[in-house]
Write a structure and sequence with these properties.
The protein has 244 residues and is of the alpha/beta class. The protein has helices spanning 2-23, 41-49, 60-70, 88-91, 105-115, 144-151, 172-192, 210-215, 225-228, 235-239, and strands at residues 31-35, 54-57, 76-79, 96-102, 122-127, 157-163, 201-203, 220-223. The chain has one domain: Alanine racemase (TIM Barrel, Alpha-Beta Barrel), CATH 3.20.20.10. It binds pyridoxal-5'-phosphate.
Amino acid sequence: MSEQILQNITAIRERINNACKKAGRNESEVKLLLATKTVPAERIKMALQAGQTLIAENKVQELKEKYEALREIPHTNHFIGHLQTNKIKDLLRCNVSCIQSLNRLELAEKLHHRLQPDNKTMEVLIQVNTSFEESKFGVSPSDTIELIKRVAQLETLKIKGLMTIGLLSAEAERVRKCFRLLKDIQQQVIALKIPGVEMQELSMGMSGDLETAVEEGATMVRVGTAIFGQRSTPDSYYWNENKG
Ligand SMILES: *Cc1c(COP(=O)(O)O)cnc(C)c1O
């Protein structure tokens, strides 16, 4: 079982590297993040022991459950799920270094109010709904710049870039449009030169569409299924706001 995980990681890295080659990019420009929802800590451990360093959960409850089991192995934790404001306190106890799913001002302000008294900061990506599907979280593309300007005023939150979930479609060109849109918004934000806002990270691409994302400029791809296997829980459970 552990060998399968390691083989899968090697295969994914090869897919990333091939896509880089095709796009004339350097392999070192694209980080691999392991999306570990539903994956038991024991299996995540195998990936970390094999040299992976970047993992992310979608739910604070799962993050908490695995945190103790994994803390002895050096790694970086990101958060990529819908974050309810009443879970912020628990999340901040689990050594998360970046919240990739910042999608609304209310969440930003509540995070800020938790971080400020402890003189702490948090890296964030702004999650943009580039597919215009209702079931996907993220600020709408047309509201993104306004949200970034507001979040930039909260000095505890360090904006590092953008994240999106592309359209789940077998039509690569429709998926590509989502990634192009994210890149386009990134360029618009860079041109505005908003103080304190960095835009180097584009977190986009998953098991099924990572090549397209790399071709369109992803700096980080988030892979679950292609490394750990099929999940029994449908993604709608993780992507639906009403089932926190
Ligand atoms: C589950 C998940 C992924 C990984 O998806 P796979 O198709 O399993 O690779 C990436 N990003 C987010 C936000 C996810 O919830």
